[in-house]
Amino acid sequence: DVSHGPILYLEDVTVSFDGFRALNALSLSIDAGELRCMIGPNGAGKTTMMDVITGKTRAQSGKVFLGQTLDLRRLDEAAIARAGVGRKFQKPTVFEQHPVWENLELAMKSDKRWFAALRARLDAPAQARIEEVLETIRLEDAAYRLAGELSHGQKQRLEIGMLLMQQPQLLLLDEPAAGITDDETMELARLLNSLRGQCSMMVVEHDMDFVAALAGETGRVTVMAEGAVLAEGTLDQVKRDERVIESYLGR
Ligand code: ADP
């Protein structure tokens, strides 16, 4: 089980592109084991925030910490991934020509050296772990199908499974429900809810039904606008917040 205290801590994080502040003194903290939904209009800085956490973009100032002590601003992308931060982009990226179980096997190798692993072939497949993750992502029955034959929603779940193979501390998910059916969306919400306590998650999402399924009545939702946190609270609270309504309508 995960310990208490923040797993992710951002303080006054600023990122400028040619003088434009994509992140403007962003401060934010996520508790260990928490599933935090992040919403906000286009251009709010959500992607830039994830880029900063994963080391893809450098912050000009501020603090970015994993747990109490790990200063992520001092690490490069590979080291941040090794420290246990997994990221899922909007589009699923799986090895379409390979069976589902083999995608999971390959994902056990960190640093994205998957293609090298493809050639070398792992000698110890750690079947138990693969079985466990297959069950978690509910793809037991699809284990020997080619990943390319899966539905979009199944590919999203497979990719989350690939991240889970590395037993991450923190998962960052960028619009995982984009482009999948309603049924698949609810299946995905079930999957993410089942991961609570196993790892912490930050989910950037536009689909409000999906956010509602993840946050429930008590989960915290953070609203970003103009590179900073505009509001934070339950989904119900932030939806009624005048500033939030204005920030969406103002665009
Ligand atoms: P969101 O994900 O919330 O839609 P982004 O983080 O993608 O927001 O973008 C925040 C702002 O920063 C936008 O105005 C965007 O145009 C700008 N921006 C993002 N990346 C770059 C970049 N590499 N160069 C210049 N401007 C950028």
UniProtKB/TrEMBL annotation:
Which superkingdom is the protein from?
Answer: Bacteria
UniProt domain ABC transporter: residue ranges: 8-251
Q: Does the keyword Nucleotide-binding apply?
A: yes
* Pfam families hit by this protein: ABC_tran, BCA_ABC_TP_C
- Provide this UniProt record's keywords sorted from A to Z: ATP-binding, Nucleotide-binding, Transport
A molecular function (GO) held by this record is:
ATP binding
Q: Which SUPFAM superfamilies match?
A: P-loop containing nucleoside triphosphate hydrolases (SSF52540)
Q: Mind telling me what this protein is named?
A: Urea ABC transporter ATP-binding protein UrtD
